[in-house]
Write a structure and sequence with these properties.
A hairpin with a 6-residue loop joins strand 2 (about 65-70) and strand 3. Helices cover about 35% and strands about 25% of the residues. The chain has helices at about 15-30, 35-50, 85-90, 145-160; strands at about 55-60, 65-70, 75-80, 95, 115-125, 125-135. With about 160 residues, the protein is α+β, with helices and mostly antiparallel strands. About 35% of the residues are buried. The protein has one domain (about 15-160): 2-Layer Sandwich (Beta-Lactamase). It has a six-stranded antiparallel β-sheet with strand order 3-2-1-6-5-4, with helices on both faces. The mean pLDDT is about 90.
């Protein structure tokens, strides 16, 4: 069942997340297909938070492989330890980059991307995937994004099908 995502565009960033997250939970609460849930999470984040690009990279065959996303075309495979996504995977921690042009080894899927946050989705100490969010503005991500997107990563780990890891 399709739903409309409603977020007050004039609200603070924290208030937007607080409005958006119950809607995301409702979207994914009655669906057990991982791809469907990740796709809806991407759409809800992109349009609810007005992000430039939102997507997931799943761990497959010893690298990160593009999964559901919203935005411009993207890199399809990222080696572990390469770029912001591969570094977040390798370090198993969230990475916020205020200016991607200053990040050594940044992989530029789009020249319009200016800042980025990557959150690993962890289960039982193992990275299952990373959530990658890009902005076309410099220094667009902060501790507020980190707190909420890490909370979302925990929800995703909880719904991750047991037979896939």
């Amino acid at each position: 069942m399709a739903k409309n995502i409603i977020v007050d565009a004039t609200a603070s960033k924290s208030e937007k997340y607080k409005e958006l997250f119950p809607q995301i939970k409702a979207l994914i609460s009655h669906e057990d297909d991982l791809t469907a849930n990740l796709a809806n999470i991407c759409a809800a984040l992109k349009y609810g938070m007005d992000f430039f690009w939102v997507g997931f990279y799943l761990v497959k065959d010893e690298m990160l492989v593009l999964a559901p996303f919203q935005g411009t075309v993207a890199c399809t495979r990222i080696p572990f330890g390469k770029g912001v996504c591969g570094t977040a995977y390798e370090e198993q921690k969230t990475i916020i980059v205020s200016d991607v042009n200053l990040f050594t080894g940044h992989i530029a899927c789009s020249s319009d991307s200016q800042s980025e946050i990557v959150i690993p989705v962890l289960k039982d100490g193992k990275v299952l995937m990373v959530l990658d969010v890009d902005s076309d503005q410099l220094a667009d991500f902060d501790e507020v994004d980190k707190i909420y997107l890490e909370q979302l990563a925990e929800w995703i780990a909880d719904i991750y099908p047991k037979n896939l890891h």
